[in-house]
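HUMAN: Please help interpret these tokens:
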Amino acid sequence: MDQFLIVTVIAALVIAGIAFYLNQPKKKPRTESLYTEALNAIVRGDTHTAMEHLRDVVKQDTEHVDAYLQLGDLLREDGHPEQAIKIHQALTVRPSLPDSVKIEIHKSLALDYFRHGKLGKAKQEGERVLKIDRKNTWVIEFLLDIAERERDWEQAAAMAKLSERLNHSKDVNRLAEFQVFQGMDKLAHGDRAGAEASFDNAIRLAPNFGLPYMRKGDLLADERNLVKAVEAWEQFSILTPEQSRRVFSKIETALFDLGRFSEVEKFYLRVLDRDSSNIDALAKLANVYEEKGEHRKALELVNDTLSKNTDSAHVRLMKLKLSLDTSRPHELAHQIDELMELITSAEKNA
């Protein structure tokens, strides 16, 4: 009887043990394993899976700051910057965080606010990063971008200088461009003297940068100082040949108003002497010859240009224009056919 009781007790204990084991909840995967899976999902571009894993991680481990950071970043990129702000903002009050983590939190908040259209708060978060790490190139470029968007050219120049110092480079053209923008703002607010001073500063800073010469020429022309305006515009055309067409009509008009229209031809010849491939200058010079009644000279110039630029639709249109009064209908039709073939070929290759 005693033996039966012992067997019965042992059997009961075994059954109870099995039942206890079977009724135990399944262990959740370790948080680091889940976090790794989340990162892998991010790499694959599977945002939904990544967020699910990250939510599981923070449920199991509320101290997992990296998971919160990643979750907020994903929400921002998924079009929910306001939710990202709440998550990242909550991290800022956590005690004893290392500076490297604080930087990542404020960087994320800066991007959250930027995406939410709150540039002022984005700037504040960026400046917090800069207080922790004055050599953080990411935040310097970020603050430079905001300064440009807000047209804060002094701040933009300061950030650009800091960036160049850290990168051991010096882009004087970039700094001069900010001076030009600052001058344009002053001009818009009626400060003409301040605007001219900014343009002059830009020229002193980067004498081989064309933009301030054009803007100064525009300012001088408004003040009817056309002689100096023409000089500034021509300097722009010399320094920026690929954009020289922006001042061609201005120079022609100014010289005409000065009674010096005969100098227009000389100006375009100077341009072409520096850059014989400048199609815009060639077109303008051909027009000058045509207006002077030198039709043959204009056509010779165009034909010579066409022999060197056979694929230029612009030059072919110039020739067609000059041929309207002198060529027969079938000759004009042939020119039109060639032009259409050129345009069709360009569209196919586009």
Notes: Residues 7-14, 16-22, 24-29 have pLDDT under 50 and may be disordered. The chain is about 80% helix and 0% strand. The radius of gyration is 35 Å.
